[in-house]
Automatic annotation (TrEMBL):
Keyword Transmembrane on entry: yes
Keyword annotations: Membrane, Transmembrane, Transmembrane helix
GO cellular component, one term: membrane
The protein, known as: Steroid 5-alpha reductase C-terminal domain-containing protein
Keyword Membrane found: yes
Pfam families: DUF1295
């Protein structure tokens, strides 16, 4: 997409091709062409998501020019989606409660963490002194890379906020909807594999986040010791410490030596898991008490692909690794060595994917 194009106002994600994201706007047609139970679910969930995002995210963002509110609204939206799945899903009760429960735990953890973190940041005034770094980066990217006017950022910001709400209605809802309306009274092997993968991924994501917090605490404690002892050089070195790079690459921090963002990778794996659980529903005899038209089934298959693809783009480019590493490179010179040594996203070498093992990424790339 050319710099300065008006299509940037409608772009989803950061690096998805135009052919990938334009059809996403038509996903509601898939839900409204599905059996009646799924149609009703879609309309109820859409109403609830808008009722959340408009007052909690869109209006505060408009008046304060801060996009950070979306980090509160989006996980709460997942909780709402999970509750709707549990309330309105008409499929086999055990599958519905397992999938809905996993989604509730998944969104609930992030929602609770966001409320506590932002409450501490704002002293529960719900007013941010400055935007989060990833959204500051998004604004810079909008003006410098996309060559779009600064005066149009407020509109793009509202679009990207509502994009999250829209995805909670469509692509991110699709796996849970398919699973919770699947009438088959037994588990498929893919469903079992997906549920196991979700549990493992969710645990490892939390372990990754936990070891990162341990790193932050350990560095803070050592810096306090150095300041007391008057060792300015050691204090400066600790300020520029890199998780996953010696001496912070021991057993406790093992996952951070495999890739630079293991928490993002396992978050992505959680959504891959939901998609796996949903796939057998596309071949089930009935869905919501009715047969699924082949064209609608293909539409849901596309929605599942969007779920995986969007999260990959988001966690690497839009709000994940790229903005985080932009600031890490500026603040910690040793981070460039970490970039050269360690893959960005995948903990193992995956062919045909760019692992961004370039010093200075994202400013410098192959």
């Amino acid at each position: 997409m050319k710099p300065g194009s008006l299509l940037h106002y409608f772009q989803l994600g950061a690096k998805m091709h135009i052919a990938e994201w334009i059809p996403v706007y038509f996903l509601p047609v898939i839900f409204l062409s599905a059996p009646a139970g799924i149609q009703g679910f879609f309309l109820q969930n859409a109403k609830h998501q808008l009722a959340l995002f408009l007052p909690i995210v869109c209006i505060p963002a408009f008046y304060t020019e801060r996009m950070a509110y979306v980090d509160i609204g989006w996980p709460i939206g997942l909780v709402i989606l999970a509750v709707n799945v549990l309330r309105h899903g008409t499929g086999w009760w055990l599958r519905k409660w397992l999938v809905g429960g996993c989604l509730l735990v998944h969104g609930g953890r992030m929602a609770l963490g966001a409320v506590m973190m932002f409450g501490e940041m704002t002293q529960f005034t719900y007013r941010f002194r400055e935007d989060l770094p990833r959204y500051q980066y998004a604004r810079v990217r909008w003006e410098t890379k996309d060559k779009m006017p600064a005066s149009g950022w407020w509109l793009k910001m509202q679009h990207d906020i509502l994009q999250q709400s829209f995805l909670n209605m469509t692509a991110l809802a699709a796996p849970a909807v398919l699973a919770s309306f699947n009438d088959s009274p037994q588990f498929h092997q893919l469903e079992v594999a997906g549920l196991v993968l979700w549990a493992v991924s969710w645990i490892l994501e939390n372990v990754s986040d936990g070891t990162k917090m341990e790193f932050i605490k350990a560095v803070a404690a050592k810096r306090k010791e150095m300041r007391i002892s008057g060792d300015v050089k050691a204090d400066r070195e600790l300020r520029e410490a890199v998780l996953g790079l010696a001496p912070w690459d021991g057993t406790l921090y093992f996952m951070w030596t495999l890739c630079r963002h293991p928490n993002y990778f396992f978050e992505w794996c959680c959504w891959v898991s939901f998609v796996l659980v949903s796939l057998p529903a596309l071949f089930a005899p009935t869905l919501a008490g009715d047969q699924l038209p082949p064209a609608v089934g293909l539409g849901f298959l596309y929605a599942n692909w969007v779920c995986i693809r969007f999260f990959y783009d988001c966690l690497i480019h839009w709000t994940g690794a790229e903005p985080a590493e932009h600031f890490s490179v500026l603040k910690r010179p040793a981070y460039k060595r970490y970039q050269e040594k360690t893959r960005c996203f995948f903990p193992v070498a995956v062919p045909f994917f760019d692992h961004h093992q370039v010093a200075g990424w994202p400013k410098v790339s192959k």
